[in-house]
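For the sake of clarity, the format in which proteins appear in this thesis is described at this point. The fold follows as a row of integers, each naming the local backbone shape at the matching residue. One such record is shown here in full, so that the layout can be seen directly:
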Amino acid sequence: GIKVKQISSVSDDRRHILDALNEAKGRADLILITGGLGPTKDDITKNTLAEYFKSGFRLDQDALENVKRIFSKYKAPLLETNIKQAEVLENCITMLNLNGTAPGMWIEHEDKIYVSMPGVPFEMMYMMEEQVIPKIKKAFNLPVILHHTILTAGIGESILAEKIESVEDSLPTHIKLAYLPKLGSVRIRLSGTGQNEAQLKNEISIHAKKIVDLVSEFVMAENDTPIEKVIMDFMESKNLTLSIAESCTGGYISHQFTQHPGSSKVFLGGAVTYSNSLKMSMLGVSGETLMNYGAVSEETVKEMAEGAHSAFHSDYSIAVSGIAGPEGGTEEKPVGTIWIAVTGKSKTISR
């Protein structure tokens, strides 16, 4: 329920940090600060915050015990610089860092809240989720923010916007629509703000249905379901199986499927056939095809898909071959040329 006014990247320079704090104070009620709490000389955030708030330091005993626990766990010598990490600003609320040695600090000053967290991503994220967000919810009377996304494919952003213009123009002021284009798809996101969660959810759903009705032939999924999961769920519902043969993608397409739980119900296996010899020996691509048309061609990728279909005994197979670059392109086949084929029970299609 909080609107982000600005995100700033600040150098390890005292003056720059002080300037950034002054600017943030003028535009926001809540200022989140990450990084610069470590034991090295370039970690100057804590000292700069002490200067900014005209505060001294205190040794937080819980933070110190946490530092000792971590060093004991790894049987590492505890240095004076490590002990100093348990020092926090005098009037702050300490937030223990269970994943590291630098504690966070919650500072309330002149009707503003400043939160200083470690810069190590997994330490910061854990602290944010477990301590900062719950404290923010208690400190502010936040509205409910809900999102509903619609994933479309096979239609460009401008044409999509034209088709759903009537819905977009009729949205109330507390519901916003955003277009999030990505290679091969456009995600429509409806974001609503309100006080009654159930009412807001129902209202957003009504507008989402209107959009889906207008562009139903292009809708792949709703609410952040990725395309590969949509394909996998559909294939599972029809008791269909899939295999994949890859060249330039190096197994990435297979990874996109296997990262989802339950993928083994659909995905039988894949082959990364980077070399022509493997395309021939594993997938049965003919040497004549490779010689006449090259590895990156419609003819080759169709034979790759058909070869995977035969080798894995799957209902459907996908094959891809291309020139990823930065070298290897020609005038006829420039870098970025990709051929993809899909084989089913009765035919093979390629693009």
The chain has a mean pLDDT of 96. Residues 228-350 form a domain with the Maf protein fold (CATH 3.90.950.20). The chain has 13 helices and 15 strands.
